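dumping this here before i forget
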Amino acid sequence: MIVSGAGRRSLDACQVSPSKNEIVLDPNLNASEVEICRRKTNTPSQPSSPAPQPSGLKRATHWSEAVEECYRFQTAGYRDLKEYCHVQGISDNEVKRWPHNGYIKVLLSRKGGYIYFDKARECQDKDLHKCKLFNYNTDNQ
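structure:
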């Protein structure tokens, strides 16, 4: 796993207004820098509905591809694919994946910056108990 910084400018160029929960942007930013500010401050470009809430969870006991995917999202600071897509304002097919096995390739961390994952398994057996698998009710989705 490799972690790198995102963007050339600091967060001083974009700040969140506490009263309106909106970004106050420096007028000299270009479109890609505005998007970086939105992602760093976890402010979506469009107002959206509340994040889907899980109805339950269980911990992983055996490795599987689903456990691997949850492990990668949780390493980046998110519950799972649903929360990541909601926070980032993207659809689930926009997540970058390795073409040969479908594992997640890169995620935007909640703390800022990108996390790059290897092609091979990253969730070792000793870390299985740390991985949470969330369940969602299908009737309110």
